[in-house]
Structures are given as C-alpha cells and as structure tokens.
Amino acid sequence: MGRPAGRVEQDELRSRMRAAGMSQDEIAVEFARRYRLRPRAAHRVARGLSQTQAANQVNAHAARLGLDAAGSAPMTGPKLSELENWPLPLRRRPTPRILALLAEVYGTSVHSLLDLGDRENMPPADLMVISQVGKGPSSTAHHDSEGRAVPEAVIDGGVSSTRTAGVDNSDLELPFDPVLAPDVFDQTSAIGVDITDSAEHWVELLSLVAGKSNVSGAGSVWSLARRQLALLDAYRRISTVENRQLLAVEARWSEFLSWLADNLGRPRAGRKWAELAYSQATETGDRRTASYVLMRRAQQAADQGRGREAVALGEGAAALDSSSVCTAALCLVRQAHGHALNRDAAASRAAVRQAVRLLAGAEPNPDPLDSHCTDLYVAAYEGRCRLLLGDLDGATRMLGEVLTAWPDGLRQDEVMWRAWLADAHTAAGRVAEAGAEGLRALELAQVTGSARADAVLDSMAGVLAGDDRVVEVGQFLAARRVVSAARRRQSFL
Q1: Which residues contact 66 (CB under 8 A, 6 or more apart)?
Q2: pLDDT 10s per residue in the chain (493 long)?
Q3: Computed from CA positions of residues 463, 465, 469, 473, in that sequence, does the dihedral angle turn out positive or negative?
Q4: What is the pTM of this model?
Q5: CA dihedral of 217, 218, 221, 227, whole degrees rounded to 10
Q6: Full DSSP string of 295-364
C-alpha cells in the first residue's frame, strides 16, 4: 500500500525546499502555514518524522544525555501528539525540559517550538526558564554542520557575570557575589513565579544542563550554569514565602559548578563552590545533599593525591546521612581511593567490596544527584585503585571491561577511564597499547575539555618520551604536541 497523498505531497515539498537551500526552520514555517500545524508538529513534519519516529529519537537522545539512565523510554507517539496539541483541553503541557529535548532532536531553538497560544497559557515558572534558554556569551561550544563541538573562545577568558560584561581569570576562582543588579530583581519579581513549581523546574533544568555537559564538555555549559544559579539566587532572595526548598536546589547547582570547575582544571574554584554548596545544604537542613557534597570534597582530595584527607572526608560524609544507597557507595569509593593512595591494599579492597554489596541490593535510583553511581562506575574506580596498588594486570583487565560496557554519551567519565587504562599500560611497559589508548583518550579529552584526564595524559607522555620510535607512541606524542601548542596559542589570545 502506498503512502497517503498528503504525505507524498509533503515529501515532495520538503525536497523542493531543501533543493532551494531553505533551512529546517524555514521549512517548518512553511509547513505550519500551508498545513495549519502547531509549531512542534511543524518542526517534526519538516524533518519527515512520524510521531512514533520522533518519540523514539527523543528517547534515544535523552538516554545519550544520561537523562533516562533506567532506559524507561517515557516518550511515545500518543504522548507527543498531546504535547503538540497543547493548550487544547486535556492535553499534556510541554515542560522546559521536554521542549529542550525536542529542540535538540529537531535541530532548532526552544523558542521556535512555541507560539502565542503556548506563551499565553504557560505557567510563569516555565516562561522564566525558557526566557533564559539560548542566551549568553559565545564561550559555550557551538556545532558545525556535522554536529561536532567547535569551541569558539577560551573558557577562562569568556566568562560573564550578571554584573559585568566580562571578568578576568581570577573571577573563576570564587563563587559569584549573590547581590545582583536591580534589573535581575525586576525581571524575576515581575513574572510572579510560584515557589514550589519553580523549584521543580530548576531541578529539571539542572538535570538537562548536566546531561549536556556529559556530551559536549564542562566548558560548553559553564557560563550558562553560573548565570542560572545567579538568577535562582536572586529570585530566592526576593521571595516573600518560605525559600528553604529553593536554597536546597541552589546547593545542588553550586555542587554542579564545583564539578565543572574541577573538570576545567580550576581546583581552587572547585573547592570554593563545594564549600558554598555544603554551607547552603547545611543551612537548609538537607543532610542528603550535604553528605553528597562532602563526598565530592573527598573526591577532590583523592584527585590531588591527599589520601588521608580523602578517607576522612569519605567517612564523615557517610556518617552524616545514610538515606541514599548511591551516595553511601560513592563515600566508600572515595575511601577506597584514599586507602589505595596510602598503599593500604586490604582497606581499599574492603571498601570496594562493601560498595558493590550496597549497590547489588539497591532499587533503581531516579535522583540525578547520584544516579551515576552504578556497578560499572565502582568497577572503574576499583581499576584505578588496583593501578595505584601495583596490580597492573588487574587494573587493565577491569578498566577494559568497564569501557566495553560503558554507555554511549557519558563522555566525562569515559575519558577518565581511558586515561587510566593508558596509564596502566604505561606502568606495565606495554608501550604500544599505551600509545594507542592514550591517543583515544586524548581525542576524547579535546571534545570534553577534561583537565583531569589531561593531567594523567601529560604525566604519561613524559614517561613515554623515550619510546617515540614505537608507531603508536609516536602518534600519541605528536598529537600531544599539537594539543600543547594550541593551548599556548590560546593563552596569548
């Protein structure tokens, strides 16, 4: 049976417009005009997708970003139909998170998916979040025609604040000044956001931004995250109702900025943001988030080689709160890492085994704060601990198994596992394997902008310098020199 006449006509029209050089947005506008389609439906049809096909793409993209770690694939064709037809009665309202996912799948902006009817019926909280999407300086990553991330400016030189058009590098070291300019207060107070609904949407937005950073790197979302946290803080300060819930959400944003700073190679800024997050979580009585932040400080200590401090902070974090199995497992992972740095093999193995047992009996975790802690994540750190303790064969075996099963899209962790695997090969004297794996890690580090992985690869390059006649090592060292030269050029910009 052939395609319906309407679909054939649309296919022919789409082909003609593409041949004429029209963009996807231009095609969608024409489809909306000719066929009286709402904007979300127009963009889907402009790409030649059925509702079921589009729903499948949304689910796949959410999984790549880490927003659907359980693989529940919540979008369906009927649900998408309701989202396209809202605000008709009894239809689902598209949230900012759903709109952002649709925009990425369709290759357009969130604003292009909305019309007057949408804006007149959306809650003020949604409009506040949507109004900030797509704004900001050009230091975030852009994409070329093939979808590759293309950095436009050096992150350290392109950060903006709500008070000035630009700041110098030292501003990266400190959390923002929470006292903002009057226009920010005017903007947030004028829209009358409901506090409960607002907190929910700030959590959704954080989840989306964190997922984006896993794909495109910490640098691609740094300025956006700082700007959103400043707006959240401004709204909380002018609210006349109870704001403890917003302060708890603010603590999570501060912790996220700490993680971004660490990945951008700014350890002092990472520590300052973590200290602020802990203060905010403690003030609001959120022991769960406070425990998680202490765990992150243990990770920072371990990354910098301070084993005793990592163990102490990990133990303190575990004692503070035990409501989350995943955070409890992460506390044990930090203790295992610290014990390995202290060359205490028995204590390190015991902590890893306990973390594995905790996760084995746990229910699926929907909280984006610590849902990344899976059995594979623990296994990767076990591989790192084995490397530190001199079990080089065990380290390479475990890290190789983790990378074979590691989910696509979780690149910030993958680049670390690859750097550690390359380092393990180097320590074992397997120089060809070290060069090959080091080159893979180096390429991924340039996409993610991972300073943590870069530090491992820099150290490894020094060890391998005398083996440059080995083809794989020579390729790795040559690529490393290109990257280093690019860094030096950027430092003079």
Answers
A1: 210, 211, 214, 368, 372, 407, 409, 410
A2: 444 547 888 888 888 888 888 888 899 999 988 988 999 999 999 999 999 999 999 888 888 777 765 566 688 988 898 899 888 877 788 888 888 889 889 988 888 999 988 888 888 777 777 776 654 333 333 333 333 333 322 222 222 222 222 223 334 444 443 333 333 333 333 334 444 456 777 888 898 888 888 878 888 889 889 988 888 888 787 765 557 888 999 999 999 999 999 999 999 999 999 999 999 999 999 999 999 999 999 999 999 999 999 999 999 999 999 899 999 999 999 999 999 999 999 999 999 999 999 999 788 777 888 989 999 999 999 999 999 999 999 999 999 999 999 988 788 899 999 999 999 999 999 999 999 999 999 998 888 888 899 999 999 999 999 998 999 999 999 999 888 777 666 554 4
A3: positive
A4: 0.66
A5: 180
A6: HHHHHHHHHTT-HHHHHHHHHHHHHH--S-HHHHHHHHHHHHHHHHHTT-HHHHHHHHHHHHHHHHTPPP
Of 81, 76, 121, 130, nearest to 103 by C-alpha is 130
- Please state, in angstroms and rounded to a whole number, the distance separating the CA atoms of residues 307 and 400: 25
User: Under a CB-based contact definition with an 8 Å cutoff, are residues 402 and 376 in contact?
Assistant: yes
SS3 66: coil
User: What single letter denotes the amino acid at residue 131?
Assistant: S
CB neighbours of residue 36 within 10 Å = 9
Alpha carbon distance 400, 393 (integer Å) = 11
Structure tokens at 338: 């610290």
* Long-range Cβ contacts of 266-270 (<8 Å, 24+ apart): 266/172, 266/173, 266/451, 267/300, 267/304, 268/173, 269/172, 269/173, 269/174, 270/300
Which amino acid, one-letter code, is at 87? Answer: P
Give the separation between CA 306 and CA 309, rounded to whole angstroms.
6
Q: Whole-angstrom Cα distance, residue 370 to residue 329?
A: 10
SS3 content of the chain, % helix, strand, coil (to 5): 70, 0, 30
